[in-house]
Structure formats: C-alpha cells, structure tokens
Batch of 3 targets.
Target 1
Amino acid sequence: MELRRARSDEYAAIGQLTVAAYDPFLLGPEDFYRARLADTATRDAEAEVWVAAEADGSVLGAVTVCPQGSPWREIAHEGEGEFRMLAVAPAAQGRGVGRALTGLVIERARDDGEGSIVLSSLDLMSTAHRLYESLGFVRAPERDWRPQPDVSLLVYTLEL
C-alpha cells in the first residue's frame, strides 16, 4: 500500500469512496454533507487530500489533512493539527487502510511541529472510535459539538 497525495485524475473516485464509506451515517439521499464528501477537488485545493493506494493505483482510502490557515479546519486551536473525512472504501475495510492513513496524519503533524492532533467523529462511528483509541487518541468531551441539530460530533485528541 502506498500513501501519497491525491492526484486530480483520482478526485472522482475518491469522492465516490468517501460517500460510500459515510453513506450509512448520512441522513438520506438529500443530506447536504453528501456533496461536501464528494467534492475532493475543493478539499484538495483548500486543504490536503492524502490517499492509500494499491500497487496498481486503485485508491483504497483517503483522508483530508487541514493545515493551519485551511478553511476546512473546524475545531483545531493554535499548535494542533486537524484531520477530517477519513474514509476507506467499503471493500477495503478491515485491511489496515484507516490505520495507515491515520499514522500518516500523525507523522505529518509531528513533521509540522504540532503539539497535538484533534478530530471530530460522528457519535455513531464506533469502529472509527476504536481505531483512534487504539492509536492513543483520547476523548475530549468538553469539545464535543453539533454542527446541525441532528448531528452530534465527538472530539478526540492525541498529544504528540
């Protein structure tokens, strides 16, 4: 598995796999977040989209790293890295793709001199929560928030 920045010719596939990974948690076909998940080109222009790819180039998963100054940052304070939209293609789930992408995010934050990493995760995403906790992330319930009345996000942090 190769970890690298997304290429523009992969944006459509990345958008599709991200929507597919999040689909069980969306509020139906009209959920506004579906379009945000699919819009890889904007995310990569305003943040950084990284992928895990097979040797043949097929994309297995993606994550959006939100560096300082990115409009995609939602909850990070000064000195904190933030990432969003960790997604693994349903057919690739359980193969360590999410763990590899999260490891890349951790190393990237260390390289950038960040003191910690923060992320928001939908309260229903228990598989993701287990992954984050296994990597040392801890809950920060005082930072939990609701971007919409019917969407509850849990916050996790990792001290670097």
Target 2
Amino acid sequence: MNGAGKIIARFFKRYWITILVYLFLIGLYAYVANNHLINAFLFPTTQAICKAFAGDRYIMLLNLIASLSILVPAIVISLSLALLIGVIMGMNRGLRDALHPVLYTISVVPSILLSPFALLLAPNFRTASLFLIVYESVWATVFGTITGIMTIDRRYLDKAETLELHGFRKLFRVMLPAASPSIISGFVNSLSGTFVMLVYAEMYGAEYGMGYYVRQNAMLGLYDKTWAGFIFMIVILVIIMQIFEKIRNRLLLWTM
C-alpha cells in the first residue's frame, strides 16, 4: 500500500463511526424530506438542495470571500490586542491582580448586546462588524495568553538566561513559543463565537457574506438555497476549526 493509501486507511480507521453518524443523519433527512413527512416548504428535498448548491456555487464562493474580508482583519486585530494585553498582564503580577477582575467583568458582556450601539455609532457597517467580531474573539485569547505566560516552564526561562536572551528576543524566541499552546487553545475556543458574530452582523447590515446569503434566501422563501448556504457555512467552519486544532496539537507535541 502506498503512502496515500495508508493515510486514507488510517483516516477511515479513526473516523469510521463519525462517517456512519453523518451518513445516518443525511439518510434520515433524505428519507423524511423526500417522502414529504415534514413541512416540504421549510425542508426541501436533497435533490433540490444539491441543485441549489450547484447553481449558486460561485455566488456562495463570492459570499465566502466577502465574509473572509471581514473575518481575517478582525482576527489579526484580535490576536494583536490579545497578545499585547496578555503578555503585559502575564508578566506583571501586580497589574494582573488589579486588572484581571476588570477584564473578566467586561468579557462576560455578550457582544450581541453591544450590536445596536455598534451599528448606530460606527461610521459604516464594516467598522461595526470589525468591532463586534474583535470583541467576541479577543477575551478567550487574552486569558489564554495570560495563563500561558504565567505557566511557562522555568527551564525555558533558565535557558534564555543562559543564552543571554532579553527583551524582545526573549519574548519572541522563548516566551511566546512556550505559551503558544495556551494561546492557540484560547483562540480556537473563540472561533465558533467569532463565526456566530460574523453571521449575525452580516444578516442585519451586509450586502454580501455567508450570513447575508442565508438570510436573503430565507426572506425570499427559497429554502433550498437557504439550506445549501447553511450547510456551506458549517463545512467552512469545521474546516477552519480543524486546521487550528491541528496547529494546537502540533504545538502541544512540540512543547512537551
């Protein structure tokens, strides 16, 4: 068996139960919808959903690009703020003891509650969306960064002293790599909420985007396209989550 065959065999050996569960869910929906055992308007047949997906695949791709054009800058801003705040607080116990309760209090405020203010006060929809997505995603990464910096193995710090690494060299070569599993864990935990906030924002103010596509077709009563867009969003979210999960697992192995 060649290399590709071994990879496929390992994949099916590991996920065969998962695959069976997905096939069962798909088959159950197909049986119920195709035999009109449930509201045929809200739950179109699998053939109609597949036809809608094939017909609108380029439109969905365009909406995906529109969503990523907001999501990627928001994630970059969120990570930058999280690292800045988390590193400063993680390295300074006095500052951490004073400000940690304040950050925790702010973080528990749901970003959806701030959406009316953001949409009314921001100069445009894009700025409001960036603010809401950053607010949703930054806190888990901040706390992950603080925890990661606080719990760095003393051996890494001793080696840094031995090599006479100080300041930014110590930070970027020793501290952040050592704390990266905790940072990535916080970031991964925030991803699902980040997508929720992105979709919410797109549903109520965007002209393009995955959330806009689903809402627009639902308002028009085109539920075959609504389901196609919904499934497309889930697939994209799962792929992105799995990518970062793999990165986190590799970092965990690297730091052990």
Target 3
Amino acid sequence: MTFARSGAALAALTTALTAVQPAFAQADGVTLGVLVPLTGELGEFGKIVADAVQLGVDEVNAAGGTKCGPLRTVVADTGGSAEQAIREANKMIDSEGAVAILGPASGEMVALVDLAKRKKTVMMSPYAGTITLNEIGGDYVYRTVSSDLGDGAASGMWLSEKGYKSVAFLIQNEESTISPAQVAREAVTAAGIELTDMIIYNPGQPSYQAELISVLSHNPDAIYLAGGQESGVTVLKEAAAGGYEGEWLLTADLAVPEIFDAVDPRILNGRAYVELAEADSSLPEFKAFAELAQEKTGAAPGPFAANSYDMAMLSAISLEAAEACTGEAINAVLRDVTEGGEKVTTFAGAKAALAEGKDIDYEGASGPLTLDESGTPAGAYMIKKAEDGAWADEKFLPASAFE
C-alpha cells in the first residue's frame, strides 16, 4: 500500500479539507478566559458575570460554533486583587491558550493593559468603568459598559431631579468611586442643592461612625453613598442606628439582592435608590436574553449580566469575522463588528451575514455597542428603588439623556 500522491491529487485533497474547516481552525476549539472576582467585595458580581458568559458560549456552540471551532471557557478568581489577576491571566494565556480574557474589574483591567498588548490578547470587562481606560483603552482593551463619568452624570441628574434641598456625599477612597462622585457633585452644585459634606473614607474599617458624625449632624435630605459592599453595609447600619431617616442614593456595588440579607430591609425600603449601568429592558434584544437567562438559570438576569453575555457574543462574532484564531486577529476586527453594517442581534445572524460577505453591526442584550476609540460604548442607566426587600426599576435614563 502506497501513500504517494501526485501534486494535483494533494492540491485537490487540501481544497476539500479547507472547505470543511478553515486552515486556521483549532480542532479542540478556542479558549476564552473568564477572570472575575468570585471572592471579596465583588464576589456576587463575579458569579453573575461568569454565568452570563457561559450562557453566551453555550448559545454560540449550539449554533455550530465559530469557524475556529467551538468555544470553551476557563474560569479563575481574582479575589479583587490586581496582582492575582495578572498571575491568573498569564496562566490562561500561556497554559490554556486563551485568545481573550473576559470579566476583570476596574483596577484589574488597568493592571492588565500592558500584558494584553504585550501578549496580544484581548481583555474585555462588563463593569470596569474606571476613567483611566478612557485614555489607555481601545487596543486589546475593551468594555461593554460605559465610563464612570456616565455613572456620575446619571447620579447627578437623579439627585438634581428629586428636589432635594441638601445632600451629603460619602465616597470610598478609590478611583472608581471618586471620579463619578466628582461629576455628580458638579451637577448637584449647578442645581443649587446644598452639599453639606463630601467625605472620602478608607475601606476596611470596623466602623465609620467618625465619618458619619458630621453627616448626621447636618441631617441632609439624602446621602449619596459611593462605596463597596463591605463598607456600604456598615455605613447603612450605623447611619440608621444614629437616627438618620432621609433617603439614599447608592452606587452599583450595592445593587445586588444580597444587600437585603446584610441590611435590615426596613432601613432601605421606600428610602434607598441605586444607580447602575443597565440596558433598556424594553428592547427586544434584552427581552430575548432575559428569557434565555430565566430558562437556563431559573432567575432573572442580575446586574451587568447582559453586558457579560455581550462579551461572549462579541468574542465569538469577532472570531467569525477574523482572519485567524488569535487575540491579534480578534483585536483587528472587534470594533468593526459593532458599527457600520447590517444590524445583527444574535451569533447565528452574524454568522450568516458574514458568510454572505456582509459588514455587520452587532447590537446586543445590553444595547447598541458601538465602541469609541477607547473601546467604550455609550451608556444607559437605571435607577432602582428598594421595595419589599428587593430592587425594583424606578427610572430608565437612556444614553440620549446625556448628549
């Protein structure tokens, strides 16, 4: 038996194999890293992100996978540490061959920028609003959520529209809380509202009574609390113990259902609001995602779930549009698939359009995802109100409200 073949026969065989599978496809598929804080202050968000990314991956694979093969995920915990995020990202790239890493929070994303560019691996976050990425994002570094400056504008708009006469600011000492607070402060001041206090506190303290003394003595109509879950819970409890009966505007870290387990709901019900980046729930793309999440998990999608699902979609669609199965190839097309072409809202629709040679514009569960030069989309926001021990939608603020 001979294995010798003529040049013509080999060429024909190569053509046939190429028609079945692109030369750059990987037999075992392509790996996406899911790098999230599963422990620490943002632990609840990490699980939401990982679960939503998996929903997207499962949908892509059910549609036949990408031309690079099916998607697989590897998950690691950052613990909220930039140093741990760097260690885990290196493992994902070097040992698992990850072409994109999805899910790091703000501080972790900033720490990973150099690694992303050096190893030509896409990094994408569903909640890293840090304004630092406004300057250094856009090349291997992307997000499916708007900048913290938008959060500040949304908070300021809400505080101004509520008709408060006086407001106090309590701000955790981190860039991701200080930056939006400064924007909100400008809006409050411009509206003629008295800013009774603007106190920046360090997290990790057993008590914040010292910071609350001045705030409670002025008895403001509302307190804007931009803090993490651990510090925020303590502040809420101590303010209530100190007799505060005004209203609250909380930032996204406190938007999780678990807050009502940690704090007596009577402290929050009817008096606390929370502001976070969120999709328009009336959009058909969000409704389809919410139905999918309910079907697969038995629960409504949590904060940033739609943004997380969209990360998986953008990764898969970019692989389908790219010229190779690499982070570098994804980076070359990622912004292009979010603007200027035929509107698509699913991976299957994008796959079909790309097969026909069309340019596409993916609009996701979290809304239109046209990415600017920093890799950031425009933002829409939701104000939720504490009612009966849960967060209920109060007012949607579309991206157009901030133009």
